[in-house]
Structures are given as structure tokens and as C-alpha cells.
């Protein structure tokens, strides 16, 4: 394979990336891979790919100048098979990006990542040897831990969502009905998990996909969504347990809307929010399946 | 000759394919015909998300590297970096702290700096410190661990110490040996006749392809492990004094997260990890991870990469152990 073949194929691949990025951005499917705050970088990448691709295209055409005599450090492989298999590495993501960009993560990945409470239930016995794990609980005898849950958390380095989302906390405390949407999903779930007692008895409406832990009784599910901070590789599941006979009919990965009441349940000393079901129905999978972690730097000064 | 025609033909077929997919990709019923299993689709999605997220930063790194190639002369570097190898570590950390570059972008930059005559161990300090000692990472850590700013301070402090130690150890191990592959870089050759911008774009494109293949392989391996590895298994061993930080470092290595995002992932481990384990995760991940190890193979000798990984691992683990005992 000669130099100008390399350059030609490279220009085509660069064009492929340009088209892929453009299409992902136009269809919005780019959000199935990265968080919206990363978008400016992708405008940059799109433009760079366009320039590089165009430049390589012209370079291959006009400048077959071996006269330069300096291939710099970049030696182009002469073996056709070897070169093509390396280019195949670049072609695969472009093609699979065009074909499968609608796919989003669901229950099977949630299982691997682990819904945090499932883990807690399983490891009850061992928890006593582990100081940090006990911090969030009340009523566990531990010398250096003071009483209230708030000081406990502050003292031992556990985030208090209350400090992080003061506005949402106020909102949820005054409202009768807690509604979760794309923007308040992460904050609401964090707050509910932190202080289930505060919000017990309020009615709640939540949408998400169905997911079951292996050790759950059949009448219990988690309804949740993936939260993404930069790219999908760092996604984590945000969800609440739901209990009721009606959940039996819903398979994993079905998108549902749940109406119910927030209750607290004790799982091996842990107070956790759980929704007592009043109604449930299937919904269409939303266009944007993930929720995104937004950094609010204005809260940082506190 | 046949193979030449073949290569050109392949190029045109690809061009056609890309346009067809771009215009009519949604109409191709391929996902319905192939019906790949859920797991394969998940690997693909995570793989693409890592590749896509890294691409803008790789491009950025490649551009900075091309700029250095064309505009920085060896004399400039020599003036900045003290002759004494130990003193030379100081400006290295400073460079690392100033460059707000993540771990993908720093690899081509450091390689170029070394090719331009920066001592190897100084380059290594820049390589490991830039992705973690930087303002963006500090802010995101501060946010993710808002109620315990000590995590953010400790992350920066530990990274500073570890980066210096890594540089020192690499100096003791390799002194001034050339760590770059086949030393195929000719430094200091400039073209006067040609347009520098054109040249910069050509460099950038060549470098994108040199590095891209390693990025793609690395992202694929990381996606594979992410999809099939149960996190609970790692978490289960993550309780002990030694096993905790070790497990968290293993996790950081495998997950290959961007240093801006890893603090958020770490904050979700708080329920079962000690602060020292969290710091192990936060300090080790940006310095070296699976994706980055493979990226390093693009430019550095295999044995050199192996000892670098070993030195970073050992240093991080020891420092975390010391930290754990004192704080």
C-alpha cells in the first residue's frame, strides 16, 4: 500500500467520523453517549475532523511529493492486509455508531453496577467491622459518631444531599406531591435516600425503567434511570424501590410511571424510602433516557 | 499493482458506505436482522461513549503536540529545565499543574516534549500530574465531595507527592535512557518551504491515526470489563485496610474514567469504601488506567510502559498506606 492510498483511506475515515458526529448531534443521539455539558467539545471535534479530512483529501490528491523525503516519524506500512486491519479498527466504531446509536443501557447493566441497597442488605453481617459504612445509620453504637444524621455525615466525610440541593429540599418539604422530572431526578432521589422519614407519607410520581435485584421478593422492583456525569461509562443507577402486587406483570427494562406514597422501610437497620404503590402503567421509552449530573458551582462556596 | 487498485477501491466503497449510512442509516433494518444480544449492545454503547468522549481531547492533545513540534525549539526547553535532575522535577509539577489536560491528551504532548529533549523522568512527572493536578479536576472533586473538602485537598496533595516520587524513581531506574519506541523521531527538522499550517494539520492527522488505534483497543477492553464485571465482587473485597485501597485502585484502572468524571463515580462508593480507598481510586485512576496503558504503548517501549505502571502502582499504594496510618 502506497502513501497516497493511506492518505486517501484516512481522509475517508476522517470524513466518516465527521458524518457520524454530525448525525449524532442532529438526532440528539449523542446524548446516549455523553452528557450535554460536554457538547462544546464535540463542536470542536466536528470542525477539526472536517478540516483534517478535507486537508488529507487534498493532500492525497496533489502532494504525492516523495520529494519532501521526510516521512517524519510516521512511516506508513506497506503491507496492505496489515494497514487495512488497522483501518478496520477505526471503521468499526463509525459503522456501529451509525447503526446502534439508539441503544441505551438498561437493567442488565444496572445489575452489574449494583443498586447500592441490594449490596447493603447482603453484607449486613460484615458491616460492623467497617466504620464508614455505619456512618449513615442511626442507632448503631459507635464511639466517635455523634447522634444526629447530619453531623454524622459531615464529620465522617459523607455527602449530605441536603447541603447540595438546598432549593430542592425546600421544595420537596413544602409540596404535597413529589414529582420527578429530568432535571430534579438525581437531587430528589439523593434527598429521599438521605432523609426518608422527612418525606414519608407524601405522594410521589416517578418514571423510569423496571429493574429487579436477585434477592428481591417478587412484589418488589426498583424504578430508576441512569445518571451520567460525563460519558455513559460513568453512569450510575438512580432509583427507588416500589412494592405492590401489581408490579408482578412488568418485565425488566419496561418503562413505567408509578404513583404512590413514600414510606420508610427498615432493611437491616437502614432506613430506606420505598414507594407503596397506588397505580402503575407502562409508558413509552423517553427520547432522553438518561438524567445528567449538573455541577452547580454556585453551591461550592458554602 | 492489484493491491494498489484494491486499496483505492476499498476507499471508494467505504466512502459510499459512510454516505449511505449517514443518509439512510435509520432505514437499514440491520439491528433487526442481526438482533445482537443485549450484552453486545451494551459493550458497543460503553465502547463508543469512551471513544467519543476521548476524541475531542485526543484531538486537542494532538494539536498541542503539533504546535510544540513546529514552534518549540530545544533551546527553549533547556533554558526552562534545570540541569540537576532532582531540581528539574519542580518545573515539571508546575507544568503539570498549569496544563488543564486530561489523561488522553497528555500522552502525545509528553511524547513530543521528550522528543524535543525534555528529560524522560521530567516528562513522566508531567504525564502523571497533569490529569489530576488541575483546576477542573479539583473543582469536580470538591463538588462531588462537597461536605468533605478534605478529600479534594488530599487528592491534590497526594497526587503532588506521588508524581514527584514517580519521577524520581523513574530517574533512578532509567536515568537518561530514551523511552520512546525505535527513536524514530527526528528532532529539529523544519521545513522552510512549506506552509506551516498545512504541516500542522498533516502532523495532527498522522498522529490521530497513530494514537487512535490504541485508544480504540483500550476503550474496547475497558467496555468489555465494565459490561461483564460485577462491581459487587470488587466492593466485597474492598473493606480491608490493604485490600480496600488495592481493590479501589484495581477498579480505577479497569474503569478508565476521565479524571473530570471519576469523582462522581467515587462518591457513589462512599457507602462501602474508606476515605483512604476513595483517595486511592481518585489519585491512581488519572495517573494510569487500562485505556491509558494501551495509549502509552503507541509511543513508548513496552518494557518502559510496564515499569512505569509498576512504579505508579507501587508508589500510590505505599503513599496511601502511609496516609491511612497518619490521618
TrEMBL record, chain A:
* Naturally occurring in which organism (per UniProt): Pontibacillus salipaludis
| Residues annotated as domain DUF1980 | 9-116, 166-293
Q: Transmembrane segments in this chain: where?
A: 12-34, 40-58, 84-101
Q: Where is this region: Disordered?
A: 122-160
A Pfam family per the record? DUF1980_C
Identification of the protein by name: Permease
Q: Does the keyword Transmembrane helix apply?
A: yes
Spell out the NCBIfam families in the cross-references. TIGR03943 family putative permease subunit
Keyword annotations for this protein, in alphabetical order, are: Membrane, Transmembrane, Transmembrane helix
UniProtKB/TrEMBL annotation, chain B:
Can the keyword Transmembrane helix be found in this entry's annotation? yes
The record describes its membrane topology as: Multi-pass membrane protein
* Pfam families for this protein: ArsP_1
Transmembrane portions of the chain: 6-25, 46-68, 88-110, 122-145, 151-174, 208-228, 234-256, 304-323
InterPro entries, per database record: DUF318, UPF0718
Q: Which domain of life is it from?
A: Bacteria
> What keywords were assigned to this record?
Cell membrane, Membrane, Transmembrane, Transmembrane helix
Subcellular locations according to the entry? Cell membrane
Family, as annotated: Belongs to the UPF0718 family.
PANTHER family xref list: UPF0718 PROTEIN YCGR
The name on file for this protein is: Permease
Tell me which species this is from.
Pontibacillus salipaludis
Amino acid at each position: 500500500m502506497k502513501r497516497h492510498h493511506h492518505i486517501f483511506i484516512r481522509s475517508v475515515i476522517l470524513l466518516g467520523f465527521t458524518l457520524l458526529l454530525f448525525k449524532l448531534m442532529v438526532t440528539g443521539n449523542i446524548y446516549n453517549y455523553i452528557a450535554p455539558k460536554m457538547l462544546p467539545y464535540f463542536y470542536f471535534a466536528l470542525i477539526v475532523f472536517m478540516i483534517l479530512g478535507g486537508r488529507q483529501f487534498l493532500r492525497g490528491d496533489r502532494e504525492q511529493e516523495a520529494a519532501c523525503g521526510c516521512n517524519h516519524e510516521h512511516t506508513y506500512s506497506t503491507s496492505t492486509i496489515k494497514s487495512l486491519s488497522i483501518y478496520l479498527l477505526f471503521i468499526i466504531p463509525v459503522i456501529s455508531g451509525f447503526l446502534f446509536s439508539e441503544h441505551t443501557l438498561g437493567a442488565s447493566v444496572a445489575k452489574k453496577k449494583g443498586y447500592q441497597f441490594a449490596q447493603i442488605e447482603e453484607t449486613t453481617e460484615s458491616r460492623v467491622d467497617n466504620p464508614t459504612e455505619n456512618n449513615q445509620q442511626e442507632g448503631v453504637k459507635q464511639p466517635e459518631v455523634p447522634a444526629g444524621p447530619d453531623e454524622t455525615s459531615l464529620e465522617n466525610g459523607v455527602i449530605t444531599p441536603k447541603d447540595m440541593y438546598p432549593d430542592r429540599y425546600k421544595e420537596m418539604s413544602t409540596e404535597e406531591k413529589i414529582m420527578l422530572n429530568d432535571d430534579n431526578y438525581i437531587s430528589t432521589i439523593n434527598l429521599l435516600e438521605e432523609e426518608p422519614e422527612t418525606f414519608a407519607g407524601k405522594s410521589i410520581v416517578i418514571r423510569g425503567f423496571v429493574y429487579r435485584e436477585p434477592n428481591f421478593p417478587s412484589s418488589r422492583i426498583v424504578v430508576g434511570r441512569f445518571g451520567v456525569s460525563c460519558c455513559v461509562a460513568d453512569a450510575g443507577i438512580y432509583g427507588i424501590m416500589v412494592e405492590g402486587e401489581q408490579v408482578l406483570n412488568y418485565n425488566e427494562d419496561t418503562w413505567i410511571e408509578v404513583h404512590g406514597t413514600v414510606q420508610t422501610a427498615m432493611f437491616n437497620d437502614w432506613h430506606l424510602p420505598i414507594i407503596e404503590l397506588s397505580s402503575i402503567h407502562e409508558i413509552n421509552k423517553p427520547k432522553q433516557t438518561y438524567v445528567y449530573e449538573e455541577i452547580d458551582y454556585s453551591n461550592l462556596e458554602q | 499493482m492489484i493491491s494498489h487498485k484494491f486499496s483505492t477501491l476499498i476507499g471508494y466503497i467505504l466512502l459510499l458506505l459512510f454516505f449511505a449510512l449517514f443518509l439512510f442509516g435509520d432505514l437499514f433494518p440491520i439491528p433487526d436482522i442481526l438482533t445482537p444480544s443485549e450484552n453486545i449492545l451494551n459493550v458497543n454503547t460503553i465502547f463508543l461513549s469512551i471513544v467519543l468522549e476521548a476524541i475531542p481531547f485526543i484531538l486537542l492533545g494532538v494539536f498541542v503536540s503539533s504546535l510544540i513540534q513546529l514552534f518549540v525549539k530545544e533551546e527553549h526547553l533547556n533554558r526552562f529545565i534545570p540541569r540537576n535532575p532532582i531540581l528539574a522535577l519542580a518545573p515539571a509539577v508546575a507544568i503539570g499543574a498549569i496544563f488543564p489536560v486530561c489523561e488522553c491528551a497528555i500522552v502525545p504532548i509528553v511524547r513530543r516534549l521528550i522528543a524535543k529533549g525534555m528529560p524522560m523522568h521530567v516528562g513522566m512527572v508531567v504525564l502523571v500530574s497533569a490529569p489530576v493536578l488541575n483546576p477542573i479536576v479539583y473543582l469536580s472533586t470538591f463538588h462531588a465531595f462537597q461536605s468533605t473538602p478534605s478529600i479534594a485537598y488530599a487528592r491534590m496533595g497526594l497526587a503532588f507527592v506521588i508524581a514527584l516520587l514517580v519521577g524520581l524513581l523513574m530517574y533512578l531506574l532509567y536515568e537518561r535512557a530514551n523511552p520512546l519506541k525505535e527513536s524514530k523521531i527526528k528532532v529539529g527538522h523544519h521545513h522552510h518551504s512549506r506552509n506551516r499550517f498545512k504541516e500542522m494539520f498533516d502532523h495532527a492527522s498522522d498522529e490521530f491515526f497513530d494514537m487512535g488505534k490504541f485508544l480504540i483497543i483500550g476503550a474496547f477492553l475497558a467496555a468489555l470489563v465494565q459490561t461483564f464485571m460485577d462491581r459487587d465482587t470488587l466492593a466485597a473485597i474492598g473493606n480491608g485496610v490493604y485490600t480496600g485501597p488495592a481493590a479501589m485502585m484495581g477498579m480505577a484502572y479497569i474503569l478508565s474514567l476521565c479524571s473530570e468524571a471519576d469523582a462522581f463515580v467515587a462518591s457513589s462508593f462512599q457507602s462501602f469504601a474508606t476515605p483512604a480507598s476513595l483517595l486511592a481510586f481518585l489519585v491512581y485512576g488519572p495517573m494510569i488506567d487500562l485505556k491509558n496503558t494501551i495509549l502509552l504503548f503507541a509511543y513508548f517501549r513496552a518494557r518502559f510502559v510496564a515499569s512505569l505502571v509498576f512504579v505508579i502502582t507501587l508508589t500510590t499504594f505505599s503513599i496511601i498506606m502511609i496516609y491511612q496510618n497518619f490521618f
